[in-house]
Amino acid sequence: MEKIDIKSMLPEELSSFLAELGQPKFRAGQIFKWLHLGVKDFDEMTDIPIALRNILREKTYIAGVEIARRLVSKIDGTVKYLYRLCDGEYIESVLMKYEHGYTVCISTQVGCRMGCSFCASGLNGLKRNLTASEMLSQLTEAQRDNGIRVSNVVMMGMGEPLDNFDNSIRFLKLVSNEKGMNIGLRHISLSTSGVVSGIKRLKEYNFPITLSISLHAPFDDMRSSIMRVNKKWNIKELLDACKEYQKQTTRRISFEYALIESVNNSNECAERLSEILKGIMCHINLIPANPVKENSFKKPDRNKILHFQKLLISKGLNATVRRTLGADIEASCGQLRRQESEGIKNADIQ
Ligand code: SAH
Ligand code: SF4
Question: Which CATH class is domain 4-61?
Fold first, then answer.
């Protein structure tokens, strides 16, 4: 019999599972609380009778993550984790400290099948989806490892959350549950490369999360050349879906724009960007492209980045340049996992 992934269970599912086992109702609440505190073994559930712990161990498992590598920035304390999953796969997570608290950037898949040309996560395609419990465990492990409480989450690590739709929704329900981690949905961002079918489905949930769109280019031919997903859903279809999404949720949308030298940083790009985003209440996040060993993309120099930002602002757009955190441990998303699979080790491991 296959064991049940107990940490992915919603409270009502856990209740009916325990009722089937003939357990009193209050046990579900106790177990839920322990799981979301990040226990790794049923024996840590000290208020649960040993007999029940044994039954749970027999029928279920706690999907955790193990720290395989931990890189700490000497500049700002940012911690980059390489986590090993129970089947030996690796994923990455980043813990960042801001004035308002701790933010964790989580992965949603092992690898990614979207194949954006500037990104290291998708170089070897998709290995598998993460379960909701594996997404949660990236947070509970960061909390335990640092003795802190995480207040914000960004689903911007490895993987395309809307390509793992059901588990991402389940994660959002679990992480915001007041008996669990209780992180408000307003403190969570979900980033997508532009999976329009997923944006349409997500809209129906009316979650007050921040939807982040990885736009990266304002012209279809340019966007299709760096992001395959644009061949399936072009910019117009994507922005129409964003408008519908905004109409329903009334939430401001965030657009990510990775600036790549001589690819998408011309004046013409800034002008076109301001035209296509007209009518959408939004914020533009300019990200200096991270170099990836496997491609030749470079970020523009600082002056050019500021010039691009200025152009957008002069057109009435709200644009900021993303602060670089952990510059000394800069390994673009997906690169640590690649290093691990290629056997490359970094000197700065703690
Ligand atoms: N798959 C989702 C979320 C994960 S990627 C998405 O694409 O939105 C998170 C963000 O990192 C995206 O905006 C992505 O475009 C960006 N990104 C990926 N590789 C990058 C690189 N080398 N430099 C800068 N940004 C990058
Ligand atoms: Fe996947 Fe996002 Fe990387 Fe594109 S940028 S390959 S969607 S993780």
Answer: mainly alpha
Is 121's C-beta closer than 6 angstroms to any atom of ligand 2?
A: yes
pLDDT digits (tens, 9 = 90+) for 256-283: 999 999 999 999 999 999 999 999 999 9
pLDDT of residue 70 exceeding 80, the answer is: yes
Mean pLDDT of 16-31: 96
How is the chain split into domains, by residue range? 4-61, 66-341
The three-class DSSP label of residue 198 is helix
CA distance 241 to 44: 46
> To test the ligand 2 pocket, which listed residue (121, 165, 216, 338) has its Cβ within 8 A of the most ligand atoms?
121
93-149, pLDDT tens digit by residue? Answer: 999 998 889 999 999 999 999 999 999 888 889 999 999 999 999 999 999 999 999
Intrachain domains 4-61 and 66-341 with the same fold: no
Contacts of 235 (CB under 8 A, 6+ apart): 215, 218, 219, 220, 223, 276
Q: Looking at the predicted structure, is the pLDDT value of residue 295 above 50?
A: yes
Pick the atom of ligand 1 nearest to 155's CA: 3
Q: Is residue 335's pLDDT more than 70?
A: no
CA of 214 to the centre of ligand 1 (A): 7
In this structure, the residue with its CA closest to atom 3 of ligand 2 is: 119
Nearest atom in ligand 2 to 159's CA: 8
Which class is 66-341 in CATH?
alpha beta
Question: 44, 86, 92, 141: which is the annotated catalytic residue?
Answer: 92
Ligand nearest to C-alpha 228: 2
pTM of the model: 0.95
**Nearest 5°: phi and psi at 326?**
65, 40
Long-range CB pairs of 300-306 (<8 Å, 24+ gap) are 300/259, 300/260, 300/261, 300/265, 301/261, 304/259, 304/261, 304/265, 305/259, 305/265
